[in-house]
Amino acid sequence: MSKKKAIVIGAGIAGLGASVRLAVKGYDVSVYEKNDFFGGKLTSRNVNGFRFDYGPSIFTMPQNVTELFELAGKNPADYFEYTRLDPIFHYFYEDGTRIKGCSDTTKFAESVAENTLDSKETVLKYLDKVKEINELTEDVFINRSLHKFKNFLNKETVKGVLNFGKIDAFNTMNEVNEKTFDDPKMVQFFNRYATYNGSNPYEAPGTLNVIQHYEINRGAYLPKGGMQQISRSVYELAVELGVEFHFGKKVDKIETSKSKVEAIVVEGERREADLFMSNMDVYYLYNQLLPQAKRPSKVLDQPKSGSALVFYWGINKSFDELTVHNILFAKSMEEEYEAIFGQNNVCNDPTIYINITSKKCQGDAPEGGENWFTMINVPNNVGQDWDEIIARSRKNIIAKINRTLGTDIEPLIMAEEVMDPGRIDERYLSAFGSIYGNRFSSNFSAFFRHPNFSKEFKNLYFCGGTVHPGSSIPLSLKSAEIAVGMVKNV
Ligand SMILES: Cc1cc2nc3c(=O)[nH]c(=O)nc-3n(C[C@H](O)[C@H](O)[C@H](O)COP(=O)(O)OP(=O)(O)OC[C@H]3O[C@@H](n4cnc5c(N)ncnc54)[C@H](O)[C@@H]3O)c2cc1C
């Protein structure tokens, strides 16, 4: 009997994960990808001798990657190696305060106590609290579909409901953090995690303080060879399992009958299959590929997440005070978030994130130099004058780095590329250049992400950063696990 056929639209990390899982289930899998490279946002580029991870740089929950190799009966270490970072971050404030984001939570709490008004005990208690929130919510909100009633009939959900008061669902992240910490610097510190899914700490539910748990309690990691190794290793596994990739092939249309998807259309040609998995942005899927479907407006018209403005700078010097991940905080947190989410603009003193993989990955920069991925959070694209924002921000970012490091970095920039929301939209087909799909703008936002299956077409499934359970490398991989978990073995 010939194998059943599955088509995956998009070779982002979720599409790659789904292709591996479908191949393991016995499907004959073909992936159609608009770009001529795999990995989607999780990709890499070389610019004048400097290698840059072009999108994600913070990596938590490596088990979501390694389990793919185990599932395929392989030894993960033969494909993918990574190390736990210590310190995870160096933090810099304009008043000269420095905090070391040590991997050991006690040492991290001690660094906070030495440098701010908050005590070690306050920090450790907070970290225990976010760990507990994770224990109460992970099985209900992350590990399963939120859109299947049967998934609520279990002891984890009952436990979650009985402890609802403990998960801070009815306070914002900022309200919880203001109540917990005496020092505004620590409120700013923990509010920043809202931006990990492009949300605003003044509107995102306090439950999202759970993000801190994943990075601070469970640790952050760096793959050997940089972040690109995540997508490269999963791609290589997929190829080994017989998955067929078609690069440079944008899917233009999805043909349906009453209750089924029949085929995709690529460059005018129909491709039929038994099962279809979309890894693309659901907004574009419904608006462009599936206009004949019932449009899930409640989901598609939610406020979108923020975006990023990134300067990829090849720097002709190395800086001992910087580590792999670095944050230079804005002077005013209120002004920064109000500019992004209130005015769709960028303030003149934004929080700056600098990622330098060459600190650990030899060869990512020429001898004596460093590869700086320099990023600020920005609104998504609603037609702002991005040339003005880029020019102004570049000046402001350089001035702030110069104040912090006590040197002029501008003459040290040997290579440069820029990524902004317009380019993110164009490159990855992410609507409005929003990085994380819908943002968490209310208590119920988790329920307004698209399900991992179609209610209308029984052989259409969804994975990726714009659907349940959320956007990031681990959550996108989780979405693929949930989606393929609903598919029957063949
Ligand atoms: C600047 C930046 C920084 C980030 N930082 C982090 C971080 O530090 N940590 C973290 O965990 N996450 C981070 N993220 C988010 C992370 O990159 C995403 O959550 C994750 O990569 C999403 O993967 P995905 O497979 O869902 O989507 P994508 O990577 O967007 O993949 C979708 C794929 O579908 C393709 N496609 C779309 N439409 C079509 C079509 N019609 N036909 C064919 N192909 C199509 C696209 O070309 C793309 O390759 C960051 C993202 C960016 C941009």
Q: What keyword list fits this structure?
A:
single chain, 490 residues, alpha/beta, seven-stranded mixed beta sheet, five-stranded parallel beta sheet, 15 helices, 19% strand, binds flavin-adenine dinucleotide
Number of helices: 15
Spatial strand sequence of the major β-sheet = 7-6-15-16-17-14-18
Structural class: alpha/beta
Q: How many strands in all?
A: 19
Low-confidence stretches: none
Strand content: 15-25%
Q: Major sheet, described briefly?
A: 7 strands, mixed
Alpha carbon gap, first and last residue = 11 Å
Mean pLDDT over the full residue set: 96
Bound molecules: flavin-adenine dinucleotide
Percentage of residues assigned to helices = 25-40%
Q: Looking at the structure, what is the overall shape? A: globular
Rg is: 22 Å
If you had to describe this structure to a student in words, what would you say it looks like?
The protein has 490 residues and is of the alpha/beta class. The chain has 15 helices and 19 strands. The strands form five sheets. It has a seven-stranded mixed sheet with strand order 7-6-15-16-17-14-18. It has a five-stranded parallel sheet with strand order 9-2-1-13-19, covered by helices on one side. The protein has a three-stranded antiparallel sheet with strand order 10-11-12, with no helix packed on it. A hairpin with a 5-residue loop joins β6 and β7. The N and C termini lie close together (11 Å). It binds flavin-adenine dinucleotide.
